[in-house]
Amino acid sequence: MSLLQAFFAIIRRDLILALRRRSEIVNPLLFFILVITLFPLGIGAQPLLLKAIAPGIIWVSALLAALLSLDSLFRSDFDDGSLEQMLLSVHPASVLVLGKIIAHWLVTGLPLLIIAPLLAVFLGLPNHAVGILLLTLLLGTPVLSLIGAIGVALTVGLRRGGMILSLLVLPLYVPVLIFAGNAVEMAGAGLPVHAQISILIAILLIALVLAPWPTAAALKMSIN
């Protein structure tokens, strides 16, 4: 099997397993929807306030939903031994790890991207800002999976690594949250957002190139 075939086989395998365990898809999505819908109930009938804080609400909810789903990225493979077999493969571990991260995003990040426009309208976000919201989610949520994979790899060998995982990855999520939320806010005000989008693209490219290497190294340390 060539490297490219192994890469796509990893993605296909994880997608099939996710479809068999539908909770991995449904739980983060339901959490995302519930958190957003609870804000109007807590704040009350204040459309102007909801409209002003809608970008922050959506992005914080997406961040927490991504964090909720991170532990499943390598956990089942670690428990059944298939993770060790993957790392012993003749193919570069970083490439195979990237395949698992992409599959994780397709299962958890893509559904958030699909449902986000409806929730944005629910919060009163202007129509001309919804497109920028989708663009920031498209650029930002893969970064959440890429950065989160490093934290998961460091804690996968721990029995209760959830709290440590949160402490590790939440500070690293802050730049994405700041620039993505600010881009949607500026778009809602009719201001240009080229700088924020360019920064998000740069963060995504850097994470895409660099994150698989420390993730693979951390997995090898966790297994040994």
UniProtKB/TrEMBL annotation:
Coiled coil: none annotated. Its main location: membrane. It is a multi-pass membrane protein. It is found in: Cell inner membrane. Pfam families: CcmB. It comes from the Bacteria. The chain crosses the membrane at residues 29-50, 56-74, 95-123, 129-156, 163-181, 193-213. InterPro entries: Cyt_c_biogenesis_CcmB, Cyt_c_CcmB_bac. Keywords: Cell inner membrane, Cell membrane, Cytochrome c-type biogenesis, Membrane, Transmembrane, Transmembrane helix, Transport. Signal peptide: none annotated. GO terms for molecular function: heme transmembrane transporter activity. Belongs to the CcmB/CycW/HelB family. Required for the export of heme to the periplasm for the biogenesis of c-type cytochromes. This is Heme exporter protein B. It comes from Candidatus Methylobacter favarea.
